Amino acid sequence: MSEAPTHSVAVAGVVVDAAGRVLVVQRRDNGRWEAPGGVLELGETFEQGVRREVEEETGVDVEVQRLTGVYKNIERGVVALVFRCRPIDGTPRETDESQQVEWLTIAQVRERLIPAFAVRIEDALHDGVSVRVHDGVNVVDASN
């Protein structure tokens, strides 16, 4: 008999400032650059999770605007819901979870982030909701 699949649900915030730059973090645990986010906790809504994760990782409080994408890491069984946000308070700073926090242009995002995470930011800058599957590094199936 096979085991039931196990997935975790993560949320991330693509925070876009008035100049069109996006807020990204360099994670302490693996050194990768990503939009701030993490595992959704039991008992919290998607928006609460996004606001908590962005604040914990960047020091910035945000308004969650809309869902922009659903992404599945097929290697790890993680489903991530990504939301576009706008900053409303706070100054970006390093935290226990992020060793660097920076505002980047989309060109800089493409240079620094691996494809599976850069596409989340690119999708958040367009209308609609994208649904994609990746292997932890590269998108392996795209619906758009």
Describe this structure in words.
- The structure is a single chain.
- The strands form two sheets. Strands 4-1-6-5-8-9 form a six-stranded mixed sheet, sandwiched between helices.
- The protein has three helices and nine strands.
- Helix 2 packs antiparallel against helix 3.
- The protein is globular and about 50 Å long.
- The longest helix is centred in the middle third of the chain and has 13 residues, at 46-58.
- By secondary structure, the chain is an alpha+beta fold.
- The relative contact order is 0.24.
Secondary structure topology:
Elements: E1 8-15, E2 22-27, E3 33-34, E4 37-39, H1 46-58, E5 61-73, E6 78-89, E7 98-104, H2 106-112, H3 115-124, E8 130-134, E9 139-142
Parallel strand pairs: 1-6, 5-8
Antiparallel strand pairs: 1-4, 2-3, 2-7, 5-6, 8-9
Helix pairs in contact: 2-3
What's the gist of this structure?
With 144 residues, the protein is an alpha+beta fold. It contains three helices and nine strands. Strand 2 and strand 3 (33-34) form a beta hairpin.
Radius of gyration using CA atoms only: 14 Å
Q: In percent, how helical is the residue content?
A: 10-25%
Cα(first) to Cα(last) distance is 36 Å
Query: How is the main sheet built?
Result: 6 strands, mixed
Amount of beta strand:
35-45%
How are the strands of the biggest sheet laid out side by side?
Answer: 4-1-6-5-8-9
Give the H and E element order: EEEEHEEEHHEE
